[in-house]
Amino acid sequence: MKKKLLSMFIAASMSYTAAFANAEYLNPNYKVKVLNSINSSKDVKKLSKSQLNDLADDLRYGILNRANTVGGHLGPDLGFVEPTIAMHYVFNSPQDRIIFDVSHQIYPHKMLTGRKDGFLNPINKNISGYSNQDESEHDFFKVGHTSTSLSLATGVAKARDLKGEKYNVIAVIGDGSLSGGEALEGLSNGAVLGSNFIAIVNDNEMAIAEDHGGLYNALKELRESNGKSSNNIFKALGYDYYYLDDGNNIEELIKLFQKVKDTQKPTVVHLHTLKGMGYEPAVEHKEQYHWQMPGFLNQKDSSPAQSGENYNTITTNYLLNKLKTNKNLLVVSAATPSATGLTPDVRPLFGKNYVDVGIAEQQAAGFVSGAAENGATPVWEVMSSFVQRTYDQLSQDIALNNNPATILVFAGGIYSADMTHLGIFDIPLISNIPNIVYLSPTTKEEYLHMLDWATTQKQHPVAIRVPAGAVVSTGEKDTTDYSKLNKFKVEATGQDVAIIAAGDFYQLGKQVKDKLAQQGITATLINPVYLTGLDEELLNNLKADHKVVVTLESGVLDGGFGEKIARFYGNSDMKVLNYGAKKEFTDRVSTDELYTRYRLKPELIVEDINKVLK
Amino acid sequence: MKKKLLSMFIAASMSYTAAFANAEYLNPNYKVKVLNSINSSKDVKKLSKSQLNDLADDLRYGILNRANTVGGHLGPDLGFVEPTIAMHYVFNSPQDRIIFDVSHQIYPHKMLTGRKDGFLNPINKNISGYSNQDESEHDFFKVGHTSTSLSLATGVAKARDLKGEKYNVIAVIGDGSLSGGEALEGLSNGAVLGSNFIAIVNDNEMAIAEDHGGLYNALKELRESNGKSSNNIFKALGYDYYYLDDGNNIEELIKLFQKVKDTQKPTVVHLHTLKGMGYEPAVEHKEQYHWQMPGFLNQKDSSPAQSGENYNTITTNYLLNKLKTNKNLLVVSAATPSATGLTPDVRPLFGKNYVDVGIAEQQAAGFVSGAAENGATPVWEVMSSFVQRTYDQLSQDIALNNNPATILVFAGGIYSADMTHLGIFDIPLISNIPNIVYLSPTTKEEYLHMLDWATTQKQHPVAIRVPAGAVVSTGEKDTTDYSKLNKFKVEATGQDVAIIAAGDFYQLGKQVKDKLAQQGITATLINPVYLTGLDEELLNNLKADHKVVVTLESGVLDGGFGEKIARFYGNSDMKVLNYGAKKEFTDRVSTDELYTRYRLKPELIVEDINKVLK
């Protein structure tokens, strides 16, 4: 029975795939057929069956066009076209509230709710790639991190009930987000609301990479039994449960949504959809086409360009080499392996020494702490924006126990990003936890030597802020003894002005030093190396012949590294100027504008220094 | 069938209870029978059946004696006596690794592993109430926050497998901890380890208070079906599953553990135990006896003494009153209601306007954000040490969306505590997130007025650091307009020295001011009110006739409030002295010693001020 269903599905998806090749919406000159008449649910309801199918073509064109023009999520949106159409056909958005998780699959919803221009003409109409209530009354939250929709929806539903209102509250979750702790907590709580609460689980068999963990085996068993397996986590939690194997079939979706609409019981609708549906390469290479860069439609091979060396490849090569001598190396990712260099081609090379825990950062933290305690050499690679998802585990599981796990924090820094994905908060987050050593390398050689130290010492948890900028190489092997904690490196000795420039901003520090030299000031240039403690001896010595200390960090100032220097000098005559980001959520602001706003340019910094030296 | 089993169990537990009344171990002069010969698993294995039962009596005596002498967890430990004996009888600790969650139920384990003196003679032998590898090779982690054991154990098991070692890795979780996100992430990942991994779920039908959420309904259904229900979340995730209804029966426990020992499959052992077993009041009043204060055995009524007004009662009374005019008030706790004044007697008064989400802080954050978005007035009460468990949701779910949820942070401050429960990290955690307003009241009147503002305004998420010290009342109604953000209050105007004293430390600031007055210095005294922003106009004005600014905050200095003041004055001649806690995990250090160490005493602070003024 299982096998038969499975092979039926394989056959079906193969025929889908074959059908895509000549799909009319792949034509760059495609003209949308019905999308222009659609502004919200009520317009979708007017369409005939064939018009609904035309609308699906229009939406696929919009998804491909946007991603090809400005980049964006691709596979999950392509796979969620039909469910979105059916949702809007059956439910009355925005009275019925559709709450999207993580927004990987929100493009079709955006196009149906007044924001089609952002997809048909993305150059001229700057629409965010994420749920955003400032854009539309059909969105209710700004969301870019996974696993939040169920919790948010329980709150929305509870407020509805307190107010005595009646409408559907629908959480849309999928693409691997269900394994995140908040999602599971929300799932458990949604079950006991005692009123209308509909969770649509978009099961496309994937996270960004493959999905991982017992939870996804549970979904697989449900898929393979056409929803009939008695092993059903949703029913076990108290949900009414509905399964649809062909989750890209508009008619069946409409029937199913009509069945659950206005239910007063907690309900899970489990949809089996095809990630990438409608675009053959995205079905064949699901991880690669989860997100794409502009221009991918015209490229033969659209794997991300790996032009030369970068910190992802440096890291991967280091770890592969390490594995030769340390069979207890344990490389860990929480569902973002490719973003940190653990691409599909290299993951198999690590064998059992690589574990993807799924979207489950708390688990990653507990896992590496446990593995370190028991003598393995765990290295967890995580993005700055996502390490936020596990503060308490960093503190209690790892730091309090002083277990020698290595945490590599990628993409930390001040740069243009969606407001949901800023990389500026990791320094305050990590560096104010006792026991953790947070290192900030400025060159490839430092980074490699820090990796050596972190993965051989047994005294501390060590986090390394992997440079987010271009690779800087000195060509000289680093031989620093990093076990001498909080020993800053004096790279050039001068007087009057000392520049303490951390990580990626070390180069900015050099530029400031050079600019000062033009006006006859020989500045001291310091690479602090450590973001978690101060070199008090050095800082005290600076008092003798320095008047001002400048700190540069590529992160938010509040709670960051520079403020610790300011506190240290509080009782002295030393002036301190801290540079970094203001405490704010910036949304797709250009890096150059951010640098100007925060005065992160040599000429602006020198201007400030001169004011203080007067 | 279900009903029959249920009534059998009720009858059984009633007979337990009746049997307790004359239990010999309740005699203060009880002499232990076999405990003195037990130092680890191998000693337990030598005991006869009747000696094992004697050992259970000994352990109950130890639990009661310790809690009655120095205070401690009671109900969960009493209920886990027999499973602990059986674990040590069957498994070979420490080769087999037993990893405890949260440590609410670890006392019997401690007594069997060389630490009995801490229970038989707790005055003379200071043993921590929590798992601690520095105390014994039978403990593997320092643990005091819930829901971590499964994640930690997956890491331990993975390291074992990489090293090619063979032994059992056993996670013990219960007492409501299974609903926490990390536990659920860990449960999902434990299922796919592919090797020995045993989760013992100690189901005593409770968290600290009642357990909440669909997860606990799922456990209930399993209990009521004697483990037979097809709705089985553990099986759904891929576990082999065993249920024991009489989880306090040593013989049955031994048989069951022998069955699962050395299994190579992921296995859940679901034990139904009786919280408080062996001490009648603890069975009758499970929440009250979760933890007890010294001397409870001799008291008639051992409800926590509520002598006069405190910030818990002030908060509860305020909210009960608020409910009269705002039917959309939503009071939320994540499983610690009594600790913040939501005691069992008052919870029913809130009716549907009160929700305990269980041990699930991320859910609490998402829930209140969703409820605020949809027009309810959510107020979440949380302990400082546990608000750490949801940084990303504070940032992404609440702050990024600027939803007007109110978060009351209790027990924040510098005081003697177990290293796992420090209250010093909430200021860096919360105050460096954009958009949140974090208020620090210094008096009852301020607190009440801040509550008024927080729960009526619609512009910001507002957190309030509820004073942890004694109630200070001015008797004068506060009429401050808190919507004028970051407006500090100047309480006394002087010159040379300005003292910015936040929250509980405002009184310390006053003492410093008084002490300075004795030497002829009239200091300015400022209540900053806001921990999330600076009153730049005021701070600039101080430059005119002040030489030094002193900041006082009852929390860690790193990333905290004072450093922001130091940064502000970095480019000026103003000296800044920051007072607060050092970045360290302190373990049961007395408050007085902490105050001395951190120089938080008027005479020490004045000494420092005089040095700077010289």
Summarize the structure.
Chain A contains 25 helices and 18 strands. Chain A is an alpha/beta fold and 614 residues long. A six-stranded parallel sheet of chain A has the order 9-8-10-11-13-12, with helices on both faces. A five-stranded parallel sheet of chain A has the order 2-3-4-6-5, sandwiched between helices. Chain A has a five-stranded mixed sheet with strand order 14-16-15-17-18, sandwiched between helices.
Task: Please describe the structure with a list of short key phrases separated by commas or semicolons.
614 residues, alpha/beta, homodimer
Walk me through the structure.
The structure is a homodimer of 614-residue chains. With 614 residues, the first copy, chain A, is an alpha/beta fold. Chain A has a six-stranded parallel beta sheet with strand order 9-8-10-11-13-12, with helices on both faces. A five-stranded parallel beta sheet of chain A has the order 2-3-4-6-5, sandwiched between helices. In chain A, strands 14-16-15-17-18 form a five-stranded mixed beta sheet, with helices on both faces. The N and C termini of chain A lie far apart (84 Å). Helices cover 38% and strands 15% of the residues of chain A. The longest helix of chain A is centred in the first third of the chain and has 22 residues, at 49-70. In chain A, helix 8 (149-163) runs parallel beside helix 9 (181-190), helix 16 runs parallel beside helix 18 and helix 21 (506-518) packs across helix 25 (602-613). Chains A and B meet through helix 8, helix 9, helix 10, helix 11 and helix 16 of A and helix 8, helix 9, helix 10, helix 11 and helix 16 of B.
